[in-house]
Amino acid sequence: MNKLLKIGLLVVGCSVGPWVHAQTTQVLQDPDAEFKSAKELYQKEQFSLAYPVFKKIYSNGIGKTNLPMSVQLEAKYYYIICGLQLNDETAEPMAVAFSELEHDVPHVQMMNYHLAEYYYRTKNLGKAQEYYQQANIANLSNSEIANMKFHQGYAYFSMQQFDKAKPLFNAIRQLPKDPNYVDANYYYGFIVFSEKNYSQALECFRIAQQSPAYQNIVPFYIAEIYYFNGERDKALEYGEQMLSKPGQYYDLQLRQLVGHILFEKKQYARALPYLEQYVSKKDKVRREDLYELSYCYYEAGNWPKSIDGFKQLGGGEDSLAQNSMYLLGDAYLKTNDKPNARNAFLFCASNNSNAVQKEVSQFNYAKLSYDLGYMDVALKGFRSFLTDHPQSKFSQEAKELLVSTLANTSNYKDALSLYESLTGQSENTVKLYPRLLYGRSVELINDQQITKADELLTRIIQSPYNNQQLPYTYFWKGEIAYRKGDPGAAIGYLSNYLRNPLVNGEVNPTNARYSLAYSELKTENYEAARGHFEQVAGSYVSSASSAIEQDAYLRAADCYFMTRNYKQALRMYEQVLSQRLPGADYALLQKAVIAGASSKNTEKVGLLQSLERQFPGSAYTAEANMEIANTYMADENFQAALAPLKLVLDNNKATSLHPQAYLKMGIAYFNLDKNAESLEQFKKLVAYYPNTQESSDAVEYIRNIFVANQKPGDFVAFMRQQGKPVTYNEEDSLTFRSAMMRYEAKDVAGAKAGFADYLSKFPDGRYNIEVNYFTAELYIAAKDYNKALPYYTAVAAKGQSQYAERSLLQAARIYYFDLKDYAAAEKYFTQLKELARQQENKLEAMRGLLRCQFKAQKWKEAAPNAQELLQEKGIATDDRMMANMVVAKNHQLNNEPDLALAAYKQVVAAGKSEWSAEAQYRSAEILFAENKLPEAEKGAFEVIKKLGSYEYWVTKSYILLGDIYTKEKDWFNAEATFKSIVENATITELKTEAQQKLIQVQQEKNKVNKVEQP
Hints:
Number of helices: 55
Largest sheet: none
Distance between the termini: 61 Å
């Protein structure tokens, strides 16, 4: 063989020489000697030497040599096979053509075999299988048959057609001397391993392990077989032994198995390094592997690493997920991280796999909510827990915590409802009742629902254990009585407060005395009013004094004025004037009146005339002109009175004085014997203000003028034209008086019937306004607001009258609070603002108008109203809160975040209400938009913890928290937050929003999670 190899090398390596001539001679002597020589090389598997010889014979062309045709064809056959053996790509198409075109079956079948082998070597296993199936073992040697079976088996194995590969490998593994014997055992062992035939697999793997190629591969399978056969100690020993040897192909998997076995044996410290290496070097692992590693960290007290693992295992519904969240909650508690522990217990409590863990987690979630100040959630949590687990060992603690939650919650609305649903309240719970009533009543006051607030305050007075809340209750009862126009009740309650005053924000002695003073003023108890005003204002006032002190000082001066102590009143008015304080124009007016009272009319008129010069645009300009006119008329200087009266009528802001001005101008002209001019003024009065007292007073003058002009018929026609015929049926007055007698006798049913009878008989009667007004008042007393409304609107439609102001106020209130018809309410608040003479009614008109615009989101129109309201003296906290809310919203919509935050801060500082809840949320929203996430998170928590009565804004704040965690890529807390909203929210739109965000968070979490996704 060596000799032939040398010859072959010479043939390839030399082109000339004596040997060539000798070879030529040999060929001439034996034409097929060259073919025979090449075939001999082929049979010795020296394909690289045989290949060029066969190629030469084939290249000379069939029929062009002295060789027989059969030899030439056989040379072609060997030429192609040599090319295939040498992996020559050009041989493949020739082999395919040979297989398809030649008719020599044995050679074709052999060609198919060699072509299949070529495809096998070049990894084209599909083609290899195709041609193996066209070969015939009858033409193959035993070694070729064995080779083909192994290769076929491997091809099937690679294509995972194990059922076809298995018998082929099994055949080879019966031949220990076959070169593929070890490989066949390995692959066959793998197949039966996958079929769980562990005994046969073990036998095969042990054979394979003897080969260096497999000695670092099969140990993992052998260890697993021991494990699956229940021989765990053996698997552990073998696995650790193999891991001590470097180079294990399945090193990580073997560590996983060893770690798992140790974990099952509860040898967590030994398991830890194996599991740690496995998980750390894998991009993704099974949930079970991450759980086992996390548990090992947990047992080792490595809380941060156990937390990092467990938190990736939430969101599932199986026991592994529940147990992970249970342990995660405990691990967080070990690190005193209550917020995250709370979220972990939420996940655990939502899982039904383990009843005990669910119970404990439900309790812990409620308890941690209580500890962290989520009082609304704690309330719901404890209530649900006691319903679900009435016999739990935690039930007593839960009840005690529920009581404490009621005491500390800011969700007074739900707290009251829950309290009233409890049966058999303990004494400790009863002690909490006044506190809950008071908290809710303050919320209602801030939300302008003063009637409902008043009812709760009354219940406080009637409740035991009310000592702490009683002073505050008296204060607010007094404030509400004052706002509702009941000064007598206000005096009683505020006096009670001042006997034992406590201070809490707006509740303080100064405000109480201020309201008490005004109440005394309304009852004309000027001495008592003065005393209270002076306690508020002190003995001196300046620009440094507060608005309430400045106003109280003026009102104290008014009290001195009303008790005819003009000297002291004058000194105080001059003090206000000298300091040019707000109200100085009023002080000047009063100074003039005092001068008139001292018969110094010239000085009086001079002072009044200077008012507009000193205070342009003053609200008292019209009153000053009216007082000038009154002074002239008192001196019977009727001509001089005309000019100031005309100024009053030209003042569109003084419409409430116009009826007086028309009457007095008519009287002045009458006394000047200018009857035509006088009649013109009286006609305007009757036409413009037919329902006023001045209009009625003018009738006598009109009669006298017509009679003086000898035109009594014209007087009758005029009166009939004005709807006031001179022959007015006395039945009108009698019917009205009859109904009024019943009204004054508090015969409600009789009064209603009498008023209804009057309106049916005299729809345009003289007392139409009075009847409509008193009918409305009867329905208001019965709290039947809807029935009162049309009567109030009927009075309001008549324009200026003594009942118009209250009727407009009541109509606006009913539309706003009861019917929620904000457009209609806005209409009546607007009219009231223009007509009101009482300061408190004007304030309510301003705040009501602003609220309507707020509801309609008319921010542009609302902004100036808000600024105007903020300038008013003595406005209530809720007024200031609402106005600042409008200002803040305008700034936010105009993209002025700093100004918006400042205004929202004013709203929040004013106290708890729905506006402050929204303001706190909007502030957090702005901070989030500016990427100030810690500050935004703190702001959202403020809403949740302190403003729990306002579910919408609490839920919005929870959603904002979820958005913050999402932005921080804190997927665990983001998922827990959105999950909590989805499970607990009752507002559909917010629940849907949270659900959508929950899905997005879960998708993002899965992208970075260590756990394999299904």
